Queue: 4 jobs
Job 1
Amino acid sequence: MRSFYEFEAVKANGEPVELSVYKGNVALVVNVASQCGYTPQYAGLETLYRTYRNRGFRILAFPCNDFGGQEPGTIDEIVRFCREKYDVTFDLFAKVHVVGAEMHPLYRWLTAYAQPAGDVQWNFEKFLIARDGKIAGRYASRVTPDDPEFVGAIERELSRNADV
């Protein structure tokens, strides 16, 4: 199994980034969409980020138009929407595919090795990455950012050894 830190992605501003820059942090990878019934989860994600960022928690949001055409805008429109409507300060990335032949390599790895394995089912599916770059959990779209079990999993990962 590869590590999360071996992948690259493109930030919303077009800047390529090696995910190794997140090494030693607990990361949450989420495929997002602006016109989805789950879109209000942006507010909860931002609350999580602001609550735990000083402990090494990072959120990586990947806009995706794979489900119901619910992210049709340009990346500039998506960034503006996220900032104006939800005051998002966590990391936004360029639009990607999370299913199908053009699936981003990160999502190919996540869906192969997370439990349960298998395709992303909808927008706002969440993958928790431990400080060592291994997958620590997978959470369905319906799991809200304030779900006690989900928050507990984040807190457990944050409390694990930060010296990895």
Note: Helices lie at 41-52, 75-86, 105-113, 148-159.
Job 2
Amino acid sequence: VTLAWLAALAYGITRVPGSGPVQPLLVLRTNFDSFGRATRQLTPEEQLAVQRQLSAARAPAEPVVWSETALTPQTLPAFPGPGLSGLRTFQPDQNAVVSIDAAGRVVDRNLKARLVPFGEYFPLYQALRPVYRVIEHAIGFELGSLTPARQLRPLTLNGVTYGAYVCYDSVFPWVARQLVRRGAQVLVNPSNDGWYEGWGVQQHFMMGRVRAIETRRWLVRSVNSGVAGAVDDLGQPVRLLSQGAGAVHVEVRRLHGQTLYTRLGDLPALLLSVLLLLYAAR
């Protein structure tokens, strides 16, 4: 067991960045009030105006990346494609990430794979309806559960495959792993970190860095009130924007191949844990 851990440590220390074609992207960071967005005190049109203004810094043919729920069906036609963006729909109630071509057409989409409990779905909603009704009255709008993804696949855009997943999905290693196993060359995580401050924001960003390390893929994050920018396939930040509203130009590398973790997941770690338990019992 010790030898296995030492071998893993040696591999991690001696890794070098992967090589592949460069893909330029323009990544946005916004500073909207998250509660105002949820209650529609801040209208989708007001958000759109800010996001389009920030996107004006794009270079020719440079895809833009917008954050979670940056678009609604009403504002979708005004998206300055090509690019990727979070999309919130209400009928059906879904939280998605989509790839959009230069003509404004949705090419591909993924729904959020893991919904946030008591935020995006409400356990025993019908059985506890009187309790939830008190909460709904206090916050001024009706609670409802979103539709989760049944399957995940990379989004395609101009010949590039993006492993795009929404916000909280970055906490779960199997999401990025599944997308890379299906051919994702770059990871993209549109997120809304405006619900919390301080260590919560940093923790979410650090979790994203781990996904880059596990899969050996560059990670791009477009966020509302969080850490936006790019992380390389070694998990090292390359260009970040963590304050104010703005846009950053990043050049990520499109990578192929699969790591041992991508192929086997947590199985090696679980086997080592079993060996340690057997050894302890002996």
Note: The chain has a mean pLDDT of 90.
Job 3
Amino acid sequence: VLLTNCSVKQGHEIADDIRNGVRQINIVSAQRQLDISTSIGIAAVTSETEGIVGVMASAEIACKTAKEAGRDRLQVIEEDNTTLVRRSEEVEWIGRVQEALRDDLFELYCQPVLPLAVDRHSAHYEILVRMQDEDGTVLSPAMFMPAAERYQLMPLLDRWVIHSALQRIGSCWTSIATSNPVFCINLSGQSLTNPGFLTFVSDEIRQMGLPPANICFEITETAAISNIDEATEFMAGLRNLGCSFSLDDFGAGLSSFGYLKDLPVDYLKIDGSFVRELKSDVVSRSMVTAICQIAKTMKLSTVAEFVGDEDTIEILRLIDVDFVQGYYIGEPEPLE
């Protein structure tokens, strides 16, 4: 809604009238009355406004903030509001992520996930993604991933990672097949519910000619539980193809053990907060021990991430963890 010759105060009053008006609308579906609410973002058009794109972005940021604050409310964009400033920065990152997808500016890295008993398991390698800045600087996911997740760009990014990773691994598979490596690819919760994503992944695996048994997909515990039905269906489809699944950040959620019986996973990746405190905190050690005991009962393998020294490795060996990962084990390196 564009209001001409209108102050922010007047605009706020008009927006509130719209919000109240929408609440009066009666919608009936399947014999049920539906309550309707509206979230509204307000941005002023002034001589300092950076064009139509800038003012539209500001209004959208304010609207999203109103939704996240509980919906059915108004939010005026304010330059000194740190939350809105952060949202504004994220909007800028949307364009940069989209540009990187168009111009192939993402890069694949990998980090070793090594078995503590080499006679029982072969090495795994987690595929990681980085982004090239305009000046060639490599940017970490912490800089661009929050915007990609907030603005629903993760399915596009996941598709790029899967296609690129399988293509590059497939091109040299004959030279590395004897070591039987397993490559682990992260999937977002958004991709689990994205229409056609399961078909896309299945087709990519078949086209690249990689053995499905050497591909493991990692999903976070939170994403799996938040989309339990879709996650289970997605995982079952790829496991039937021969792929495996790892549950990332395990133990960080509130319902970890309860959902394990329903999720078709092969690996539990123990949340790094427990592993980091293994030497100094008795509770963390007990948690890791409990996770390993449950995993052994369910015939699942365990992975400890954020391993930082030899003492931690020895404790993990005593607890009977299967795999270790961390900068002490090996830092991420370009996949090439």
Note: The chain has 14 helices and 14 strands.
Job 4
Amino acid sequence: MTRTSENLSPELHAYLVAHSTPVDEVLTDLAAETERLFPDHVGMQIAPEQGLFLTLLTQLIGARNVVEVGTFTGYSSICLARGLPDDGTLLACDVSEEWTAVARRYWQRAGVADRIDLRLAPALDTLRALPEEPQFDLAFIDADKESYIAYWEELVPRVRPGGVLLADNVFSHSRVLDPAQTAARVQAIRDFNVHARDDTRVDLVILPIGDGLTLARRR
């Protein structure tokens, strides 16, 4: 199952892709290998157009220090790292050696391995061990949904004023609209969306890209 931006017709999505910068062979091969190796988890990978957005946004804000929570097989980390200058750094947080072993191979192939610092540990432990002052230009959250608020609370103080926070899957595949959907991960996203909206430290908008992407600017 190739990830796409949801709630678009197949025709409109095809038009979107056809009129965006083409995805290169590295990312195409990574998406194919991820689908082959981890068919039950391939939906965790971001959509190609979302990856392009991450690269462009990283470049547009002149980010030098970036953090992502949830690396999986490395698609988003490649896209973020490609937006960094040569001396930029991406702190990648994940708990799976199996998934990130694939990521490491593709980081090398993409020529961005020297920009990525992978920490294999619970992300909250990694974040809480960091200095509390602002240090990141951009933060991307795409991990276990039940911990989104906790990740947010650790990251907002560590993002510089004018910096950006992103959170993926904030539509929960449209389940946020259905009261009958009471699973913990769905309710966690509903709670996160309210929490982030009401946070006076940021201004934000939800973009209808992928499965819903929160874009917030630190005040």
Note: The mean pLDDT is 96.
